[in-house]
């Protein structure tokens, strides 16, 4: 495979290369939708089966921290979109600024999520032998179903956090390349592709927040 500048040998021009890269990312995101979809389906089935216990368990989450993280990710989607726009218009300084802002917002999200996880460990709400659920009043069935809820909670949010960490790594790479002046109006495909990935991760959280934090808030 030969490379001429930013153009790899199997492509005729940069536009064709960008379209191929975009198609590849969309195919990848479709597989991610199916992956998360299985977990969402598992959550939906179990919530329908044990609605009362899932309602009790969901009230153990800090809705204010969840809402704050939602706002953080919405803003990060804006800064990522502006980073893509800056790369398309050849504004290097703006691109660097928006990449840094997006990375910082991603760090804030992960920091808040760490605080949430720490609180769950402190209150023994992590599935396992040390699990404690005060509202169960000794009912073994309620304890088991509450553990099921928190297993899904940690599974869904943990997987999402892992995607955020991957996204942060991509942003760091983009930033190093942007500082070298690699991205121009003619070539900015990596920024666009990483932008698609970042928006996908943000959208997943938009579904997670109401499902885990809000749907049983007043039950």
**Taking Cα atoms only, what radius of gyration do you get, to the nearest Å?**
21 Å
What integer is the average pLDDT? 89
Assigned CATH architecture: Up-down Bundle
Give me the number of helical elements.
6
H/E element string?
EEHHHHHH
What share of the residues lie within helices? Answer: over 70%
* Low-confidence region ranges: none
Query: Would you tell me the structural class of the helices and strands?
Result: mainly alpha
Number of domains: 1
What is the topology?
Layout: E1 3-4, E2 7-8, H1 14-49, H2 51-58, H3 63-88, H4 92-122, H5 140-179, H6 189-214
Antiparallel strand pairs: 1-2
Helix pairs in contact: 1-2, 1-5, 1-6, 2-5, 3-4, 3-6, 4-5, 5-6
Care to describe what's here?
76% of the residues lie in helices and 2% in strands. It has six helices and two strands, in the order ββαααααα. α3 runs antiparallel to α6 (189-214). The mean pLDDT is 89.
What key attributes describe this structure?
two-stranded antiparallel ribbon, 2% strand, 219 residues, Four Helix Bundle (Hemerythrin (Met), subunit A)
């Amino acid at each position: 495979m030969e490379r001429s500048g930013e153009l790899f040998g199997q492509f005729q021009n940069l536009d064709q290369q960008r379209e191929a890269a975009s198609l590849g990312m969309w195919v990848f995101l479709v597989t991610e939708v199916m992956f998360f979809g299985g977990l969402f389906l598992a959550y939906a089935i179990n919530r329908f089966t044990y609605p009362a216990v899932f309602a009790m368990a969901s009230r153990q989450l800090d809705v204010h921290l969840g809402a704050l993280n939602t706002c953080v990710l919405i803003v990060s989607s804006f800064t990522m979109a502006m980073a893509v726009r800056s790369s398309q218009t050849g504004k290097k300084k703006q691109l660097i600024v928006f990449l840094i802002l997006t990375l910082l917002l991603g760090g804030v999200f992960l920091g808040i999520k760490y605080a949430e996880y720490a609180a769950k460990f402190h209150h023994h709400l992590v599935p396992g032998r040390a699990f404690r659920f005060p509202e169960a009043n000794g009912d073994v069935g309620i304890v088991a179903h509450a553990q099921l809820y928190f297993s899904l909670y940690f599974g869904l949010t943990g997987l999402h956090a892992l995607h955020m960490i991957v996204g942060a790594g991509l942003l760091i790479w983009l930033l190093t390349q942007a500082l070298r002046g690699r991205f121009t109006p003619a070539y900015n495909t990596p920024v666009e592709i990483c932008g698609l990935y970042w928006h996908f991760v943000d959208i997943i959280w938009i579904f997670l927040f109401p499902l885990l934090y809000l749907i049983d808030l007043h039950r």
